[in-house]
Design a protein that fits this description.
By secondary structure, this protein is an alpha+beta fold. The protein has 5 helices and 4 strands.
Length: about 190
Amino acid sequence: MPTDQERLQSVAARAQTYWNDFLSAFGGRIRMEALFEYRLTVNPLALQFFRFCAQQKLGSSNARIVFHSLRSRSPHWSGRAASWLYHAGQDVPVILIDLQCINQRIAQVVGQRRELSRCITKLVLHETGHVVEHWGVLADRRLAGHLPPCPPEREDEAWWFCGLVWGIVLGAIARANRENPTGIHDRAWEHCC
């Protein structure tokens, strides 16, 4: 079994490749700061990236995100996950997001709407990581339904993917600010708050 460092390097390479291919597909017309902008629903850039990854990995042009209570899975499920990957059949991934679960967790946070928006964006990137890293071992291509829970090492790989994409975008923003003759300060930090 590969070490954590080997697994991280592999995930990092794929995260960088998928992000670079995503940027190339749009001819550099993507404003990366959009990933950090407050939205009432799903961040459009995160949604585009998820759909791009599903298209590249699975050939699926129907990937989507649905707000759905995950509590209905079973009485023991309540509050255990804010998002879940669903297989709609024919290699169509669907991210289910449980807003009630998220709101319960961040109810005490100042600036709740901004925090909700970031949480949803990170959950989308996390589930995108599962599509890129684990779809073939999670989804039975013949059956639709909720995908099974992942073992811990697959969960950490999906979170690594999320964090790596987040960091790649922040790094690109910082680099662009430094390369701009009037941008003497690294303003990427502003997207961390």
